[in-house]
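Batch manifest, entry 17 of 40.
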Amino acid sequence: MNKTSSLIAILIASVGGFAVGHMVGKRSADDTGTSKGAAVAVLEGDGLGERGEAHPEAGDVPRIRVPVTKDQPIRGPVDAPVTIVAFSEFRCPFCNRVNPTIEQLFKDYGDNIRLVFRNTPFQPGAQGASNAALEAFEQGGSEAFWKMHDKLFANQSQLTPENFVKWAQEIGIDAEKVREAVANDKHADKINADKALGAKVGARGTPNFFINGRQLVGAQPVERFKEIIDDELKRAEALMKKGIERKDVYAALLRGASDGAAAAEPSRPAAQRPDPAAVYKVELAGDEPQRGPNDALVTIVAVSNFQCGFCNRVLPTLKQIEETYGKDVRIVWWNNLLRFPHAAAAATLALEAKAQKGDAKFWEVHDVLFENQRSINPENIEKWAKEAGLDVAKVKSAIETNKYDAVFKDQMAKASRLGAGGTPAFFINGRFLSGAQPFASFKSVIDEELARAKKIVESGVPRARVYAEAIKDGATSPKLIGGGDAQRPQQPAADQRYEIPIPAGAPAIGPANAPVVIQMFSDYQCPFCARVLPTVDQIIDTYKNKVRLVWRDLPLDFHPQANPAAQAAREVYRQGGNDKFWAYNKLLFQNYNQLSREKFEELAQQLGGVNMNEFRKALDSERHKPAVDADYQAARNSGARIGTPAFFINGRLVSGAQPFENFKRVIDEELAKK
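Output type: structure tokens
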């Protein structure tokens, strides 16, 4: 590729996170991805110029300095007076949904806007997709990039290494190089640089936009974008009248802006992540299904679920691990049911297969369940038991009597205590790895643990004792890093209490004089918040008048519909009180993955007894946003480092969608003190 075509290719890639099967705006006849007549140029430096004092035309709106260099994909003319920097990813459904909005903006504003793409994959499969797209771009320039990009977004729910290779073959690039790029995380440096910048400027989720440095979070309606763009065009026009060249408008407006998120709206509770170097004491019962020898140097405990799509996607990676490491690795199976409808029955079938015919039969049934994941139901479970040569009557009895219930609860509780609340999750000689990550992510940890294991053997420990030795001093609770001041405790003491005032009139269940008050901070788009609701119901049913549950809103930045949903629920509460609120609350969680303004109204009408004119007015005017934001700020002011869901039981923090037993322990301790 010559220099000119390389530069054009770089500029084309900007809409990678936004178009599905088509470009934003019109492509030129040569399919370069730039608009006809658009100025194409290479940027130097960071596109910001001198820092200096804020220009008067920048106004008093919060701005963040987001660099724009020749290394980022750009669409639109280099001298556009409005620059939109987008932090996006191929796996994000909201990035997908914002496509029509971005297309409309280019139709309406033409050469007055440019779009700069920052690649920030967070979800399982997204990192591999980013590598596949960047490898396509490296091999075939813009044409190959857009072909791969279209494949990725058109098949957003099927982002697997096998499909990346298949799509590479279909678009005519070197599929083996794509396979290697994905497996080895080849383009990680560029991706990580974008993610680091996103963290710095406060782009904690996708999509996240900075319009001339002004942050706009989520797949917002076109009117919200236009409101900011129109204002920025007026400021740009005033600058140009004063002699600022069109190409220098972005730098002029961001002169004096903040280098980080501090100057923007108040930051959300700081995000934390598991310490990748921490070793956990993951003790085995000894009778779990396993593949590989007992004296393997590296033990991988896989916390999984037969109905979990991501658990299915990681299977080829686990197979590659077995093929690569042979007898040096064993894989041990733990169950995390996660309240999928037939998860317990499927897991019971697999464990009964082991009980009747050994480990080999367990893995045979394991493969059948994953191959037919979408067809798991009682009838098929009985059919598969028969096909596997099992005693079907014993299988049915095991399911009906909850034969393995104690096993499931024990494994789920142990995993949860160590921070593995979701699936799939892996402990590699005690080191935590979350999600359906690529082979390279597993390999780096396995290689380190293999080296550590060999040293343990060299010290005189038999191979069969290596695992016990490797985890003997392991942690028994989550070890987190990040999230602000490293000097603050990462985990609160068991009896630490947080003072969080309860606002008057907050939605609640239970008597006002209950000896135990639980403040539940939650987010209507959070799947873990949805999953914990049966546990919350169990708490209410078990403790009745001894517990009062108070609802608090904590809508996270990367859930764009969470704040509007919270406002909708509060309007229902204003009109109908606690009973209506909690009924609507459940409806929202039942539809957490399809929330929208239309859905809020549909659910309110379904609930009945809601004045829809008043409901719509409340949402249009954001009447309840101050109350939602006040809850948000209360969480931030508490000093606790939390995500969602988070529960404060008489001020004691229980974080995450934990099993009932974990709540019960704290509640019982509090009741004993009364």
